[in-house]
Amino acid sequence: MAVCNLFLQGQQFREFFYLYRVNVPYSKFAVMRFLLFFFMLAPLMIMAQSIVPLAAGDLPDANIGAMNTYGIESILEYNEDAGVMVEYGFQALMVQEIKSKGATVKVEVYQMSSPEAAYGIFTVSVLKCKQRDTLTPYDCNGVFQYQAAYGNLYIGVSSTSGSTSAQSLYIPAAMAVMQKNPQQLFQLPEPFNQPLMVKGRRNLAYVRGMVALQNLPIPYQELFAGVGFNMYSIVLVNADSDYYFARIGFETPDSQSRFKELAGFGPIEGPSGNTSTNNGIYREYRQVDYQTIYFLQSQEPWPISAVVQPE
Fold first, then answer.
1. What is the rounded CA–CA span in Å between residue 119 and residue 87?
2. Cα gap 66→95, rounded to integer Å
3. How does strand 145-150 pair with strand 139-141?
4. What is the phi/psi pair of residue 66, to 5°?
5. All residues at 6 or more sequence positions from 10 whose CB lies less than 8 Å from its CB, including other chains
6. Which of 4, 71, 187, 212 has the greatest CB tally within 10 Å of its CB?
7. For residue range 6-46, what is the model confidence (pLDDT) as tens digits?
8. Residue 148 Rama label (left phi>0; alpha psi -120 to 50; beta)
9. 2-23 and 28-50 helices cross at what angle (nearest 10)?
10. What's the pLDDT at 88?
11. According to the model, what pLDDT value does residue 27 have?
């Protein structure tokens, strides 16, 4: 239906243009009216084209339901917990239902502002996974849901039953969505492609804002009070104790100064520094650039140099 509507909109647009070209004398007023109409129609056409839905024939022996779409103004009506989506940069949502061999699954495709945003939503949303890295480097296949970060898209295919027949639809449905909406794969920034980081990548999350931070099990959330930031955070398992490493980008110099102050680094302005809190927690930072730092926290002194290889 959406494709038909888009076709009709395009046909009406061509007819409109033809009438203007043939029947309206060339004038600045006519051109202005045409441009006004074009710029009013263009956002609707872009939204309609943003996520290509599944159609009959995309999945053998499956009944593909109608497409429902939601924008920034209506996403909270669909999902009252979508505040974290908005925080990351939500743009649009497409929802469809698929029925096959007695099973019903729901396909949700969130269009985010960037691949980084889609990856971030994936990292704070994943549940228990039976399999990972099935279709993309960042996906999770479980009993009740398949989730993936794929370019600018966060894709979920889920069922309420978790039946074997429902699970058999997860991967084919997600693959069909990806084939109809090709994206460039997201590349993690350094140092998260280094060998030690790759081993702990299942514990890696990208956080943008305080709502997402509440879903992240890290023991230093209080350091971000009043701080504008985005962060890659990973838990690395050590024989003696776990340690927490992060790449933190700050929105302003004041936010960076406040974080360092709350972390106990004091008025340090140099390229690196470390401290131990009153309860024996070790913290260290290293400046990456003027708005980005590496940050490490652990129970035992464990320098950043032991975690990050020289770039």
1. 13
2. 8
3. antiparallel
4. -65, 155
5. 45
6. 212
7. 333 444 434 433 333 333 343 444 434 434 443 444 443 34
8. beta
9. 170
10. 95
11. 42
pLDDT of residue 301: 86
Contact 308, 294 (CB under 8 A): yes
Task: Please give the Cα distance from 31 to 183 (Å, whole number).
Answer: 36
Query: How many angstroms from the chain centroid is the CA of residue 23?
Result: 48
Q: Phi and psi (nearest 5°) for 95?
A: -125, 135
Span 239-270, pLDDT tens digits: 677 899 999 999 999 999 999 999 999 766 67
CA 82 – CA 80 distance, rounded (Å):
6
- Prior bond of 191 cis (ω within 30°): yes
Strand bridging mode 229-236 / 90-100: unpaired
Residue 288, token pair as written in the block? 């990456």
